Amino acid sequence: MIRRARGFTLWELLCTTTLVGVVLGLAVPSVRVVALDGRRTAEINELVLAVQLARSEAAKLGRPVVVCKSADGLRCAGDDLRFDSGWIVFVNTDDARPPQRSPDEPLLLAHAPLGRGTISSNRAYFELRPLQRRSVNGTVVFCDERGPAAARAVIVSYTGRPRVAPVDSGGAPLRCAVPR
Predict the structure, then answer these.
(1) What is the DSSP letter of 74?
(2) Do residues 47 and 68 touch, judged by C-beta distance below 8 A?
(3) Residues 6+ apart with CB under 8 A from 78
(4) CATH of the domain at 44
(5) Which residues are within 8 A (CB) of 171 and not within 5 positions of it... i.e. 6 or more apart?
(6) How many CB atoms lie within 10 A of CB 141?
(7) For residue 103, is it left (φ>0), alpha (ψ between -120 and 50) or beta?
(8) I need a labelling partner for 53 at 20 to 30 A (CA). Which of 9, 13, 16, 177 fits?
(9) Which domain covers residue 96, as residue numbers?
(10) What is the mean predicted confidence (pLDDT) over 83-87?
(11) Which segment of 21-25, 152-156, 159-163 scores lowest on mean pLDDT?
């Protein structure tokens, strides 16, 4: 009776290792793109949620509701910060111009700062007003390490409806802010 050795030959191990290396080399960049797309989509959805919440609360309460950038989650920030510092949604009961949340105004939502990438806007804030009144429109651009080619914009219309697009409201390519 002849006994056969169990296991793999050196040639079989070398071929298998090479094949696994090639497959992993092709798969890793794809996984990275999927992860970046997922992170960008999650941030975009958070802002769209904030705008939709502000729009519905403005209609329900009959008062302006503001979405503004905020570093501390309590007050609106100035022009020196961008939306990647975070944002808040609050009811503007005192109709302050420019909107600034006072302690007695209801805070509806606070969003923490962005970990990576940039979020820039052509508006310091978005004020969503009750029905039959024009809201503040504008564009918010989300960028990650891939730059303008992978950037997405949330475009808020005068009626307060947000939409996501790969170009700005005029159809021009998006531009990313310089990371800080």
Answers:
(1) S
(2) no
(3) 124
(4) 3.55.40.10
(5) none
(6) 22
(7) alpha
(8) 177
(9) 32-165
(10) 91
(11) 21-25
Token duo for residue 172: 């021009």
**In a domain? residue 125:** yes
d(CA 3, CA 63): 87
**Are 108 and 65 in contact, with CB atoms under 8 Å apart?**
yes
Contact 100, 125 (CB under 8 A): no
Which residues are registered as beta bridge partners of 87? Answer: 69, 111
Nearest Cα neighbor of 153 from 44, 33, 38 is: 44
3-state helix, strand, coil split of the chain in percent (to 5) is 30, 20, 45
- Listed in sequence order, the DSSP H helices in the chain are 10-61
Q: Is residue 25 part of a domain?
A: no
Residues 94-98, mean pLDDT to the nearest whole number: 87
The tally of domains found in the chain comes to 1
